Amino acid sequence: MYKNINIYSCLALVVYPFVFVGVLTFLFFTCKCNKDVETEDSDLINNENTISEIHEFPSVLIPSELEDPDTRANYLVTHYWDNFDFNDTTYCHLPETTEQAFVNYAEVLLQASENVAISCIGNLLGKAEKEITGYMYSYFLGLAMKYFYNSNSPLRNDYLYILVAEYILQDQKSDEAAKERARFDLSMMMKNRIGEKAADISYTLYSGKTGTLYTIKSPYTLLYLYNPDCNACSEVIAYIRESSLYNKILQQNLLSILALYPDDDTDVWKRSLSDIPLEWVNGYDSKREVVSKLLYDLKAIPVLYLLDEEKNVILKDATVEEIEGFIENKIYLSRK
Fold first, then answer.
1. What is the three-class DSSP state of 37?
2. Which of 47-61, 65-79, 146-160, 278-292 has the least mean pLDDT?
3. pLDDT at 64 over 50
4. Residues 291 and 263 sit within 8 Å (Cβ to Cβ)
5. pLDDT for the residue 198
6. Per DSSP, what are the bridge partners of residue 255?
7. Which residues pair with 203 in a beta bridge?
8. Under a CB-based contact definition with an 8 Å cutoff, are residues 250 and 333 in contact?
C-alpha cells in the first residue's frame, strides 16, 4: 500500500529548496551586477577627471624683467598657445578648458597693439590649421565667430573678426561655401567702420515728408534701426525714455535720434508710432535701400550707431548703455 502523500509536504521537501537556491542565486548576481555598474560609473567619473587633469590648459610664464603692462600683455598674447597641443582633438570636447582659455586669450588680445593682434590671429589659426583632421581648425573658427562676430557677445570686435575672415579666404582647409560666407561677412564689417562716414539713409515720416540722415543737423546723432515687434527694441526705447542723461542731452539739442524701420510692413510700423517719443525722428525706409543695398549690417536688431556732427561713426553697433557711457564721459561732462 502506498501512503497518502501530502502536497504541502512535497512542496516543502522538493520545490521550496529549489526556489530558495534560485533566490540566493538571483540576489548574488544582482548584487554583483550592481557592483559592476557602480564600478563602471566610478571608473567613468575617474576617467573624466583624469582627462580633465591631463588636459589642463598649459599656462605661459611671463619673464619677470617685463614690468610694463603693455609689454607683458603683448608677450602673453604672443606666447599664449606655445604649450598647447593642437594635435590633441580631445581639447575640442573640453569647453571648461579650451573655450575658457580662448575667452581669456580674447580679453588679452583686445588690449594688444594692432600689429601684435594681426600676428597673433594668424599664428593661432595657422597652428590649428596644421592639425590633420581639420577638426581643431574648425573648432577655433567656431570660437572666433562666437566671441568676435556674434552680436550678443560681450567680446564682439569687428576688427579681430576681419582678421579671421581674411585668414579664411587664404587658408587651405575651408571649402568654397565657407570662403563665400567669409567674403560676405568681411564686406559687411568693412562698412560703416568707426572713424569713417556712415552711409546716408533716406527716410519717410508718417506725414509723407522725406529726409535723410545727412540732413539732420545736430552735434551728435543716434541712428537706431529697429523693428516694432522686437522685444529688445522695446527695451532700448524704454531705457532711453527713463534715462535722465539721455533726456538732458536731447533737451539741450546736443543729440538727435533717428529711429528707422527698414522693413516693408508699414502697417506694423504705423500701429507702433506712439511707442516712439515725439522728439525723435521716426521714419521708415520706403525705398528699402538699407536692406536691398546692404547699407548696414542687420544680422541682429536693434542696431545702434552714434555719429558725430559730420556723420562719422563714433560707436558702431553699440548697446544703449555703451552709448550712454560715452555721452556722459565725452559729451555731457565736457560741456558742463
1. helix
2. 47-61
3. yes
4. yes
5. 98
6. 220
7. 211
8. no
The label of the residue with cell 583686445 reads 110
Using DSSP, how many helices (H) and how many strands (E) does the chain show? 14, 7
Residue 108: closest CA among 147, 65, 53, 55: 147
Beta bridge partners of 281: 258
Strands (E) located in 104-196: none
Q: Is 289 exposed, middle or buried (0-12, 13-18, 19+ CB in 10 A)?
A: middle
CA gap 241, 246 in Å, rounded: 8
Sketch the domain layout of the chain as residue ranges: 1-54, 69-189, 202-335
Q: Give per-residue pLDDT as tens, 284-294.
A: 999 999 999 99
Judge contact between 334 and 250, C-beta under 8 A: no
- Asked whether the whole model's pTM tops 0.70, one would answer yes
CB 105 within 8 A of CB 59: no
> pLDDT (tens digit, 9 = 90+) per residue, 68-90?
888 888 999 999 999 999 999 99
Residues in the chain: 336
Cβ-Cβ contacts under 8 Å for 171 (sequence gap 6 or more): 125, 129, 137
Architecture of domain 202-335: 3-Layer(aba) Sandwich (3.40)
Residue 224 CB neighbour total at 10 angstroms: 24
Residue 260's pLDDT is 98
**Contacts with 78 (C-beta within 8 Å, 6 or more apart), sequence order:** 116, 119, 120, 123
- Indicate the Cα dihedral angle 189, 192, 196, 201, nearest 10°: 160
User: At 222, which helix (H) or strand (E)?
Assistant: strand 220-225
Ordered alpha helix ranges (H), 243-313? 244-251, 266-271, 289-292
